[in-house]
User: Fold Homing endonuclease LAGLIDADG domain-containing protein from Cyclocybe aegerita.
Amino acid sequence: MNNFNNNFISWFLGFCDAECSFICNPVARVNKQGTITSYRVFYRIQIGLNIIDRPILEFIQKNLNNLGKIYDYPHKNESTLCFVALEDIKYLIVNVFSNYPLLTSYQQNRLAKLKKGILNNISGVKTIEDFNAIFDNLGIQKVNIESLSKSYLEHWLIGFLNGEVSFTTFKNRGIIKPKVSLEHTDKNALILFKNNLDLGPSVLELKKRENRKITYRIDLTSAKDLNKICIFINTADSLIGNKLNQYQNWKDNFNL
Assistant:
């Protein structure tokens, strides 16, 4: 039985669209002669953050009925919340991800693979071709954004911003001015952000970097747009962790 807070879950799905890894990978089984005999399927859900944001992982874990385990890697300045136990992953799939939608296509596809394997108890395959036949081209159904409540979208956006937004500056005629940037590989997520807050700038496609996916960005620099995002963040359930500290320092520096 779950007792999830709907506002938290909406925030969590937005944060997952920004930061979560849904892992469904084949791992070779090798005999004593060094020959691959088959493949087990490895499943994991994990969220890795800078160690300064470990409290965010603790917040997530607490609100997910204390599922998963947090691992610290001080030499890398990282902390990771991992869900490896199959019963924990299945619980999250059934009670969270099957009832509340992710909104970025990449994460939807990654989750779909995990969901198919877990719910069908696929523990192993004979060949890589078998793995690909099962998990490739799953045909993800597009989420109808208009069917989602205003509350869901607002809390999803706060979660997404908590993972991806940058509160920064730019120089105009020698004067340092405030800027908000949001960059991601999913153009539709940025369009959703733009439309939901009625922002002015266009979503731009950035020049493709070698061995990287195409990314998109929206930059807010006008007083009107900056005021809109400040009002949104101040009136919605706020950012948390180091991102909240960054926002407050940035806002105070420019008296916004």
